[in-house]
Write a structure and sequence with these properties.
- The complex is a heterodimer.
- In chain A, strand 1, helix 1 and strand 2 form a beta-alpha-beta unit.
- Chain A has a single domain, classed as Rossmann fold.
- In chain A, strands 2-1-3-4-5 form a five-stranded parallel sheet, with helices on both faces.
- Chain A is an alpha/beta fold.
- In chain A, 31% of the residues are buried.
- Chain A contains five helices and five strands.
- Chain B folds into four domains: 151 residues, Beta-Lactamase (2-Layer Sandwich), CATH 3.30.450; 117 residues, PAS domain (Beta-Lactamase); 67 residues; 148 residues, 2-Layer Sandwich (Heat Shock Protein 90).
- Chain B contains 17 helices and 21 strands.
- Chain B starts with a helix and ends in a 10-residue tail after the last strand.
- Classes of the chains: A alpha/beta, B alpha+beta.
């Protein structure tokens, strides 16, 4: 596990994106980030990765729900329809705790749903739990 | 007296069967002298009759009067006998009267005089009084005599007048209708309400006052009423309208009363114009709707505002915190202090916004009220509170709790806030908390009692208001939303909440919930 882990963050709020990146980067693991600032951008990047070769594809996608142009829901639906992209685990990372959003996300094939805690310590804990679970415990799909 | 008795020189013979109606009794001579006694009896009977009796001959001359006639008209019998009967008739009818008499002699029969007309007698002093007169032809040897029986109907007329005035003065429209639906009586208010003169209504069908669209069905309603007549409201539950002469309509309320008279059954309708009442009802309903709308809008606003405020606030709070974590002690002391102020302010604002959101969610995000096991709800709450219960050494006693009509999550919030408060506002003693429920007429009364610091009851109302705190920031945590939330939730459950407390002794918070079997008025 010396290879760097690649995380794609789909988040329209740069402050939020920076915060997430900051917290992930403060962990033990070596990570590279790709930031998509809306749903359309995310799909473009992922398709390009699919065409140019799997090394460009992320190991994990952190997906916000409320995004301009194309919502997180739509991005999720697109991904799970794509034979190559559907393997990539998607973590919904959103401020919404509405039951409907949770249910819809799982229906569309989200791998897990996390509500962003309001305070920094809580958020810190969540980000590290996600990091620990997906990169230390879980066996990720092969990149072929 | 002698002269009167002279008239009874004959006896009455009973009519033959089958001759009724046109029967004219004939006087026949007494066969035996012993009949003088009978004659005296007749004389006395006529004299003592409670009605005036006047007999006239073919030329209209008075040939007999009794004592009551003298009393009624103020003449002595000497002044009347031999005079034309017109002396007793008001002068305005004096001219026509002889022709009526002639007509009667042509067709003599026992009947009432002047049926349908108002009759008056004329006293010696010229004054008049209302009368009813029965006419009876009597054939004597001397020719046809006509006996008039005169009843003074002054009192009856006065009673009728009183009735008429009462009806006339009624502030409601009064319309009396006969069996075939013809209007036989209306009062002044009816004229005013419908814009008709009474002469335009009397004798007309009552459907004239009914809007055209209901006219078709009205006669059958009337028929139905005649089958089951009783004092009741017309068209219970339906909106009734009257139709004015100009075709316009107005809302009415109508009371129906059957009145049985000799002539048949009549229906007396009392009509109330309820336009004003309808208008005020409508404006009241409009106000209630408006209030409901603005309340919902306010709630929605509070929800959206607090929800949307959370996001940017999270950024402020997170970054000030990150700043303090990363740069604590790296700048100067003042910088540390300023950062701390920013962090603290942001945190407190987060609590407020979050509480505001919870508060507005009571109305906007509440679930329907369902039969709920209050005991199970309390179990969950105690698990959630187990850490602070353990830490404070609180002892919690509880009754078996009933099934109630509730939103499970919200009921949990109520228990959590009340028990949380009981723990938070504890005295030096370990908290003793008791949760109980008893069934009263208004529903299940739940109580949460503690042995905590208690409070002055003059603050009892204030503690249920949003963001009202009795203690300084430093003493107890919290924004002061807890009890406001409890109040709002309980009220959404159609209940209410109150507090009993004594400073230093403890508090009891009670609230009412409907039993699970209750039906909701409007939820």
């Amino acid at each position: 596990m010396t290879q760097s882990i690649h995380v794609m963050l789909v988040e329209d709020n740069p402050a939020d994106a920076d915060l997430t990146r900051e917290l992930l980067a403060s962990g033990k693991l070596q990570m590279t980030f790709t930031l998509a600032h809306d749903g359309v951008h995310a799909c473009e990047l992922l398709r390009a990765g699919g065409v140019h070769g799997s090394p460009l594809l992320p190991d994990l996608i952190l997906l916000d729900l409320n995004l301009p142009r194309m919502s997180g829901r739509e991005v999720l639906a697109e991904l799970k329809k794509d034979s190559l992209l559907k393997r990539i685990p998607v973590v919904m990372l959103t401020s919404s705790d509405a039951e409907r959003d949770v249910a819809e996300s799982y229906d569309l094939g989200a791998n897990c749903y996390v509500t962003k805690p309001l305070d920094l310590n809580g958020f810190h804990a969540v980000v590290h739990a996600v990091e620990n679970f997906w990169f230390s415990i879980v066996r990720l799909p092969p990149k072929s | 007296m002698k002269r009167i008795s002279a008239w009874f020189d004959c006896c009455l013979k009973r009519p033959l069967a089958g001759a009724v109606g046109r029967w004219v009794p004939k006087w026949h001579g007494f066969a035996r002298s012993g009949d003088a006694q009978t004659e005296e009896l007749f004389r006395l009977a006529v004299e003592a009759a409670p009605n005036g009796i006047v007999m006239v001959d073919e030329r209209g001359r008075i040939v007999l009067v009794n004592a009551e006639t003298e009393r009624l008209f103020g003449y002595t019998r000497d002044e009347l006998l031999g005079r034309s009967v017109e002396i007793l008739v008001p002068s305005r009818f004096g001219e026509i009267h002889p022709s009526h008499r002639a007509h009667y002699q042509h067709e003599p029969e026992a009947r009432r005089m002047g049926a349908g007309r108002d009759l008056y007698g004329r006293r010696k002093d010229g004054s008049e009084f209302p009368v009813e007169i029965g006419l009876n032809p009597i054939q004597t040897r001397q020719g046809l005599r006509v006996m008039s029986v005169i009843v003074d109907i002054t009192e009856r007329k006065q009673a009728e007048e009183k009735f008429r005035l009462a009806v006339e003065a009624s502030p409601n429209g009064v319309v009396m209708v006969n069996e075939s639906g013809e209007i036989v009586l209306v009062n002044a208010e009816t004229e005013r309400l419908f814009g008709y003169d009474r002469s335009e209504l009397l004798g007309k069908s009552v459907e004239l006052l009914v809007p055209a669209r209901f006219r078709g069905g009205h006669p059958s309603h009337r028929g139905h009423y005649h089958h089951a007549p009783q004092a009741r409201r017309m068209g219970e539950g339906r909106d009734l309208y009257g139709r004015r002469k100009d075709g316009s309509e107005f809302p009415v309320e109508i009371g129906l009363n059957p009145i049985r008279m000799r002539e048949g059954m009549f229906v007396l309708s009392v009509i109330i114009d309820i336009s004003e009442r309808k208008r005020s009802e409508e404006s009241l309903a409009a106000q209630a709707r408006e209030l409901q709308r603005s309340n919902a809008e306010l709630e929605q606003f509070a929800y959206v505002a607090s929800h949307d405020l959370q996001e940017p606030l999270r950024m402020v709070a997170s970054y000030t915190e990150l700043l303090s974590q990363r740069y604590q002690g790296k700048l100067d002391e003042k910088a540390d202090k300023y950062i701390w102020y920013a962090v603290d302010g942001a945190r407190r604002m987060q609590v407020l916004v979050n509480d505001l959101l919870s508060y507005s969610r009571v109305g906007t995000q509440g679930k329907p009220l369902m039969p709920t096991d209050a005991g199970a709800v309390l179990d969950n709450v105690l698990v959630r509170l187990s850490k602070s219960i353990r830490e404070t050494g609180a002892n919690i006693e509880r009754d078996a709790l009933p099934q109630v009509l509730a939103d499970e999550i919200q009921l949990g919030q109520v228990f959590q806030n009340l028990i949380g408060n009981a723990i938070k506002f504890r005295s030096e003693r370990p908290p003793e908390i008791r949760v109980s429920a008893r069934l009263e007429k208004e529903g299940w009364i739940f109580s949460v009692s503690d042995n905590g610091i208690g409070m002055d009851l003059k603050y009892a109302d204030r503690i249920f208001q949003m963001f009202q705190r009795l203690h300084g920031m430093g003493e107890y945590s919290g924004s002061g939303i807890g009890l406001a939330l409890v109040k709002k939730i309980v009220e959404r459950h159609q209940g209410h909440v109150w507090v009993e407390s004594e400073q230093g002794k403890g508090s009891t918070f009670s609230f009412v919930l409907l039993p699970a079997t209750a039906s909701l008025e409007d939820a």
